[in-house]
Structure formats: structure tokens, C-alpha cells
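Operator note (shift B, R.M.): manual run for NADP-dependent glyceraldehyde-3-phosphate dehydrogenase requested after the automated queue skipped it. Running by hand, logging everything below so the morning shift can see what happened. Input copied straight from the record, untouched. If output looks odd, do not overwrite the archive copy; leave it for review.
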Amino acid sequence: MDEQSTRFETNAGVVAQIRQLPVGVVLASGPFNYPLNECYTTFIPALITGNTVIVRIPRNGAAPHFPTLELFKKHFPSGSISILSGSGREIMTPLMEDGRIDFLAFIGRSSSANALVKYHPAVHRLHTILQMDAKDCAIVLKDSDVEFAAAQCVTGAFSFNGQRCTALKMIWVHESIAPQFVQKVCEIVDAFKVGMPWEEGVQITPVCESGKPAELKDLLEDAIKHGAHILNAQGGRFSKSLASPTVIGPISQHAKLWTHEQFGPIMPITSFSDLSEPLDWLAQNHFGLQSAVFGYDPQELATVVDTMAFQVGRVNVNAPDKRGPDTLPFGGKKDSGMGVMNAKEAVREFTLETVIATTVNDPRNVKALQGLEGVSRVVKGTAKIKSE
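Run finished. Output pasted below as returned.
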């Protein structure tokens, strides 16, 4: 750790050096959808703060890590980082049960995070950063730019096949503009080029998980059973690992899509007449990663932003949810997250604060503390400490 991790306090005859020190052994696991960026987000801050790291890379998305293995071997001391690939149950469960993991940095399902934490024999001393499920929404106010909001919501819902924690997974649109909004959304979505990732101009590709199309089909059928309709002409089509982008609505509170994270190319839409409707839904939502609002009236925007700020980790105004830039803190509330990733905040997450103090009524005490510099591994910069 550099000297920026050190600060000094002098009060009531006591001088103290306060340092941020490594937590210990970090077990990190990232998701398949951004196998490099999000996986490395979990452990790079841990490495640079002096922790030992065990990284479990996802089965779907292991290949991009192979070129980096030699780099880690070349530039980091032996044992400082270990990279394992395979089933989380086979790799992470026994590591957690062992009890020597001090910190769990995890991106994935909340059910998996809950299970992993419970495997640890001393949960009370386990530190965590968890980024989990999400049910991000967009609220489209009556004074929004309909064409702009529709295009932004489509991007937010369907980029990367909607297989992003930050994907928009519920759209609330004011009833006065709902017909125009839905028409524009369907025009954009039905113009998508569907194909393989290596084909030029393709916007929708096969989903990554083999069982995902069947799960998405079940969600659509359930929504239709509760009064919804597929709104775009090309929606609701499935073939092996391919799921066509689908716009569906209105969504009933009894449908699974009301609360369930679809994590795929489905955009549920429902309309509202009173702003309390989407805000109540937001407050009752178990998840709280991000959300968005489209509109320009300061009073209505303030009402939405003030509510969202207590419910989600990031509020996007006239823009869809997104991860970047990585200079911003990334974290959620409720069942979506615990702790912060990205930026300098993440560096502090992987450290523990330690106080080294002495009284200043005897000059020998300060001299002794300063004498530790160059001998102690953690006492640094003590020349700044002066007796009162």
C-alpha cells in the first residue's frame, strides 16, 4: 500500500497512524456474460491492495482468460493468484467450507451467493462484495421525447441479448404516450438483424445458456395467460439456443415477469396513469441495482429520482442503465448488491483499517514509533509524526 493509504490523527495527547492493510485470502468469481471485465473487476483491486487471490472463472467464458495466465505467472509472486475453472459447486463450495477464505467477491445469482456464504464456518468474519440479480426498470414520463426514449429503452433492454445485470427488465410508460412508444419500440426491435456473432451487423445472437430459451418461453406463456400480448411481429420465436427479441405487455402483477429477472431478450411493458404506480412497484421490488427515468419536467423528475435514489445504486436520467465508465462506483441495494466495485472505492473495500498509536506526553514514545520505519512492514511515513 502507498502513503495515500496512511493518515495521521493527533488528539488528547495521542498520536495515531491509521493504515489500510490487506484482508487476507480473497475468493473471487465473475459471470459468463462479461468474462474478462467483470471477473477482473472482482479481483484486481484485491491484488493491488496486497491480498492473496483465488479466482474462479466461469465455464462459459473461460477461453478469454488463457492468454493472461502467463502474464500473471510472469509478473506476480508465486501463490499470490491462483486461477481455477469449472463448476462453482465443485470449486467454490469446498473452498468456503474450509474456512480460510477471508473475503468473497462474487458476481452472479443471489441464490448462489446466499448458499456460498452459508458454507463458511465463520460467517461473522467473512467480508463480502456481492453483485447479484436485478430487475431494473425505466419510467417514461408523459413529457419525454418518445422516439428518443423508445430507442434508448430498446438499447437498454436488448444489447448483449438482454443478458446483463444492468439490462432494463421492466418498462413503465405513461398511458398518454404508450401507443406511440410501443409502436416505435416494435419498429426498432423488428428491424434487428438476427444471426451469429461473427456476422456483420448482427444485433441478436444465440443466448449463452442452453436452457435459457425454454425458460424465456415459459415466462412469455405465463404472461400471456395473465392477459399480456406479444406486441412485435417477430417476437416469441425460439429455435434451439436462439430466442427472438420480444416486446410483451401489458404485464399483470400476477405474471412471473412482474418480479422475475428474465435475463434475456424480452422487454415487458406496462402503462401507468399515476406516478405512484411505478414508484410503488420500485419500492416493493426486491432488487435494486439501477433504474432509469425519461422526461424533462423538473418536478416529476425530482419525484422519481428521489424515490429511486433510496432503492437503487445508480439512477440514470434520460439514459439507459449501464455498467461504465469504470471510474464510477458500481453497486446495488437490497438483493442486488453489497459493497462497491470499480473505482477507488473498491480498493478500500479490500482492506481493513488498523490504528497504530502512542501518547505524546513522553518524546521517547514518538521517537520509538518513528524508529519502526524501515523495520516494520506496516509503519511507514512516521517522519510526519511530531510530538505536541
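Quick read of the result: Residues 210 and 249 are 26 Å apart (CA to CA). The two ends are 28 Å apart (CA to CA).
Leaving this for review. - R.M.
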